[in-house]
Amino acid sequence: MESDGIAARLARVRERIERARERAGRAEAVTLVAVTKTHPAETVQAAIHAGVADVGENRVQELEAKVAAVGRSAVRWHLIGHLQRNKVGKALPLFDLIHSLDSERLAQALSAEAVKTGATARALVEINSVGEASKGGFGAESAVDAVARMAELPGLALVGMMTMAPFTDDSATVRRAFATTRRTCEEAARQVAGFRAEHLSMGMSNDFEIAVEEGATLVRVGSSIFGERDA
Ligand SMILES: *Cc1c(COP(=O)(O)O)cnc(C)c1O
Description:
Layout: H1 3-23, E1 31-35, H2 41-49, E2 54-57, H3 60-70, E3 76-79, H4 88-91, E4 97-101, H5 104-117, E5 121-128, E6 138-139, H6 140-150, E7 156-163, H7 171-191, E8 195-202, H8 208-213, E9 218-221, H9 223-226
Parallel strand pairs: 1-2, 1-9, 2-3, 3-4, 4-5, 5-6, 5-7, 7-8
Helix pairs in contact: 1-2, 2-3, 6-7
This protein binds pyridoxal-5'-phosphate (PLP).
């Protein structure tokens, strides 16, 4: 898509975020993570030109290519897709925040790599908020115990939670998924000293306004800005 189109769509998305924030009477800022997966590095450049400071990718290989083309410090890079443990070494230097910490084994691998390289892995704990078998992440009931164990791992900074709402037109179901994640995050912050409830990553093109109303601080929006992706 052309740069002008991106700038206009971006402005519209920002406006909708702002209105949702006002409706909910929320004072804190909401950060837009522009999801550029499947689009070329030129699209990332166009987004940066239009004022984007946070970019999300869901695959390590694609993240690597775009970081190489655009620059590691050009934006904050967010890894939003499942990370295989054998790619932790490659991925860790490339992202500022991983939204998709979906298992204790991945937490252990990130911790080990961070300790080895003197880095800190900043991560959001992924919540499978309605218990869908097709999705990864921690069930809301077991998440706080898991967070307590993962918070002990060196080199790993747990700074919030992320969820993907179920794919449905039923906004009540979507809202419930976001509210469950917010409550789980608040509960973890109450119970686990090493957990920081700084970020709630919730909301995509279809549901980011509901997510903002339910407390999202990071929304991950792709197709509303860059157009539909090829299947
Ligand atoms: C692709 C993706 C998004 C963005 O989806 P859109 O519907 O294009 O806005 C958000 N979060 C995750 C985890 C994704 O994989």
